Amino acid sequence: MSERISMSVERVDAREKIYGEALYIGDYRFEDMLFAKTVRSKVPRAKILNVKIPALPDGYFVVDRDDVPGKNRVKILVYDQPYFADGVVNYIGEPILLVVGPEREKVFEIARKVEVEYEEIPPILTIDDALSGKNQPIYGDDNCFVDYHYEKGNVKNAFANAETIVEGEYETGYQEHLYIEPQGVAAVFDGEKITIYGSMQCPYYIKRALAECLALDEKNVRVVQVTTGGAFGGKEEYPSLIAGQAAVAAMKTQKPVKLILDRTEDIMVSTKRHPSRTRYRAAIDADGKVIALDVDIIFDGGAYAGLSDVVLQRGMFSAAGVYNIPNISVHGRAVATNKVPTGAFRGFGAPQVFFAIERLFDKIASKLGENPVDLRLRHAISQGDFTATGGIMRQPVKIPEMVEKLEKMSDFRSKIGKSLPGDEPHIKRGYGLSLFFHGCGFTGNGENIIAAEAKLKKHSDGKVEILVANTEMGQGALTALRKIVAETLKIQFDDVIYELPDTDRVPDSGPTVASRTTMIVGGLLKKAAEEMRERWNEADEFEIMKKYHHPDYIRWNQETFEGDAYPTYSFGANVAEVDVDTITGEIAVRHIWAVFDVGITIDEVLMRGQAQGGVVQGTGYATIEVMEAQAGRLLQSTITDYTIPTTKDVPLVECAFIDNPYEYGPFGAKCAGELTLVGAAPAIAAAVENAIGREIVRIPIKPEEIIKKLD
Amino acid sequence: MHSEITFTLDGERVSVDCNPLRRLLDVLREDFNLVGVKEGCGEGECGACAVIVDGKLVNSCIVPVGAVNGAEILTIEGIKKTEIFGKIADAFAQMGAVQCGFCTPGMIVATYAILNQNPKPSRKEIVEGLSGNLCRCTGMNIIIEAVEMAAKNIAR
Fold first, then answer.
1. Residues A435, A481 share a domain
2. CATH number of the domain encompassing residue B37
3. Tens-digit pLDDT profile for residues A469-508
4. Is A552 part of any domain?
5. C-alpha–C-alpha distance, residues A43 and A14, integer Å
6. Mapping DSSP to helix (H, G, I), strand (E, B) and coil, where does residue A157 land?
7. What's the order of all strands across the beta sheet hosting A46-52?
8. pTM for this predicted structure
9. Chain A positions in Cβ-Cβ contact with residue B127 (cut-off 8 Å)
10. Partner-chain contact B136 A613, CB within 8 Å
11. Alpha-carbon distance values, A356 to A232, A353, B120 (Å)
């Protein structure tokens, strides 16, 4: 890493976090504060016939749909789930009402005594049920939140001319974010204005949702982020729901209301990664070239639409993987089921589809009798090629260099595709490779719709303040954006101020999602800082605002899904080394080597943190993170049941980065945060497949399924 | 059902008069405002609420306060005043072992417990010593490296 900007600084929030002095929402106290507990549906689908509330002591309240001053639907992409159930419930855990009061224990006791009488409706519980038309649809006529199709080239002709056809069906399970700090908000109402404090990614999402929920003018809704203990997408759309509930309670009681989920509640009711089923058909010509893909993707969206529409789009636009496929047809559906709504999670629909396409490429390699590395390199997209949606891959693609670097790090090419002996006779070892990308920023024309605004303010003492709505959730935004501004202005890092966002002070620079903060918002700040540098002596105090618009080269048709789905792409290549115990079926992921092209890293230490964390989160997704629903109820509702990698489970992870500066990114930076999660699962699945010589088509890979395969 | 419970908290003798079944975590956070002790799961799995009771690392969310009568408790606040804390803090900051920070005070407490018992731990001992603390951001390897670095710098 030769770039100056990449040299690491100590992150600005390190010390207060190490000292235990950073205050999270659970640590805040407000005078006269009331605690809240949610009463939730115990059944997957029903009409609510009656709600019996026990006698309430003085100072205790029940808050439900009748208390919502405005619209009782959370505004996300559409008016989505009700803040409080509106006569029906569609999933176990759906909020019905809040009990609020001064003593937490008492509030919990009252909540336990609330009795809800249901008239159950036959629920839709699986993807197959969702599409069967057997039961009354949950959403629309076809029970699909969205049903999309796009095609490039002529897939039908290509299949007619195919020498070989390879088919595969792949499934992925739920994944729970399991940020260590559970969801939580506090609402304070002063008679005119509501203020929300909370753990969140997107203050302006909450602000807009609450203006409609509370029937308040937007200027009377203030949202303040407090230190946020991890998010990974889990605090993108979900906090709007609980913020609305707490706000309605605060308006009703005229007292501050704090609503913090306990861990079991958080696991049961907050959003998850969409379970998926993806079917591929590949047409291969006589030269062994993959000439067409026919793809059918189904995501299980749960009971409400949430962000399923855009999560699915990102999945669909990843359907060709990193390969140059001249003909492709992609059908995608997000279906409604009577289960917890699924939503944003690091990778946002791409991990499911990359798992599938990478597994398919291994299958094609085996069918053609070719080394899976050679097959991949033969098909890898390069600069000037067309993407799946017919956009142009404009920037250089360094896949061959990345694979070469992986080879230097891990010596994997001679070991891939074989079952190798482990340290003991019943242990088999295998290696697997994955190649993947992440489209940078919002999908399609999203960035133009958002039209992010970022502001830089020069103070009279010479300090410069960053005013943006982007949040720090652990990824290092507070540090990275400061570095960009300091380096551009040639001022000291410590002379740049950047507080956690307060919507009364900062413009809407868009949500902190889609790995867009550094590239998009950082890019705006760089422009603002360049202008400020020119105008530095103009005045003691002044502000510069910059508004985002896509670079001119981008063309995109949101109706037909044609063109540049993303302004640019970051790339990754992973190799996994696994041991499989053929007696117990247990998988030990021993080592993962990872090479990433994120343009230029803005801070080596921060980037390494993203890479290490992402790879391990992806490792959990492929292996031990099992979450399943039975009769609409999640079987894993505690950390004891839903296990994430501990020090004893984590593989050694070795990361390297390839410089590939992006002209429109600050200092050449592209997207980084989500990319790092995407490749672990397909690499691990390939490694397990190689170790045991049996096909792996489903994650998480459970020991009992390994045993079954080996029997 | 109230009783007086006396213990040493970060070097100071304190007592509380309360239900002995209250969670130690709640007593520390609510009665002593020690909000560096975090609640991540409430079931003794994540280690965000870790404290040291009589030299042993425990999760304060599964300890009833009645059980610590007469005990010596060390929280992140007390550890901050120890000699080795500075080296631990520097190592965590330099290695990038802190991201969202919610697990961090618990990690520091666990690190202190490891290094206090054995100033030269092997990697295996560090892995064992941190295995009760979950971090979802860093992937854990960086935290293991930070503990190794702290141990090395303390030995210097």
1. no
2. 3.10.20.30
3. 999 999 999 999 999 999 999 999 999 999 999 999 999 9
4. no
5. 44
6. helix
7. A88-89, A46-52, A115-120
8. 0.98
9. 647-648
10. yes
11. 22, 5, 45
